[in-house]
Amino acid sequence: YEMRVENFVLVATAAVREADDGSMFVREVKQKFGYSIRILSGDEEARLGALGIIGGAPQAQGIAGDLGGGSLDLISLEKGVFGKSDTLPLGHIRVGEDSNQDLSNAQHLVVENLNLLTWLGTSPRRSFYAIGGAWRAIARLYIEHTKYPLHVLDNFTIGYDEALSFTNLIGGLSAQSLAKMGSISRQRSVSLPFAAIVLNNLIKVLLPKEI
Fold it and tell me: For the chain, does the N or the C end have fewer beta carbons within 10 angstroms?
């Protein structure tokens, strides 16, 4: 309102895209509020997330991963140009539900899905750009845990070994233990181990030099 925006676009991601009543929800919003919702494909979702990276780093090279509640969207970046992309049903909430909140089951589920994408591990030692609130929460925990002097999450970077070790730690903790580690909400602490398991296994596949 203060910026006097005259045009905006409502978009829906995996939660609506894959819901049985997703189309019904879109029609109801249109009927009640007069606004149309554009349901993004997995490829569009990955590209829009990666545009945020390119906006700040036009020559970005590596893999961008956007983790939401319902899906993991991956896309390759070659000096700012989009490459291969894929969407997997590995959102942090979805992995928890599909594994019956069992961390061991979640581990197998994540590995099975990542093994479907043969292109992921073909270019090691590049950057991995992590997008999404759950992964930002992991970065915040890392900053608090290591007493890192700057609490700035944007462009916060850690190396392969540190990321692998820390996500392995978080991916094995209960919600109660996570709540004691740092300033995360109770709701976030329930799904955060599953977000860590996804990131940990993704790092093992990609072998990036930095995250």
Answer: N
The answer to whether 186 touches 104, Cβ cutoff 8 Å, is no
Structure confidence at residue 130 (pLDDT): 95
Report how far residue 158's alpha carbon sits from residue 146's, in angstroms, rounded to the nearest whole number. Answer: 12
CB of 134 closer than 8 Å to CB of 191: yes
Q: Which residues contact 61 (CB under 8 A, 6 or more apart)?
A: 77, 78, 79, 126, 127
Residue found by looking up tokens 């181990």 in the block: 193
Q: What is the mean pLDDT of residues 15-26?
A: 89
Q: Could you tell me the CA-to-CA distances from 82 to 43, 50, 93, 108, 127 in Å, in that order?
A: 11, 8, 27, 30, 15
DSSP E strands in 8-135: the ranges are 10-12, 37-39, 61-67, 72-78, 81-88, 127-131
Q: Is 180 helix (H, G, I), strand (E, B) or coil?
A: helix
Q: What is the spatial distance between Cα 91 and Cα 132, in angstroms, rounded to a whole number?
A: 10
Residue 208 burial (C-beta neighbours within 10 Å; 0-12, 13-18, 19+): buried
SS3 state at 116: coil
In angstroms, the CA 156 to CA 201 distance is: 20
| Alpha-carbon distance values, 15 to 23, 26, 46, 184 (Å) | 11, 12, 15, 23
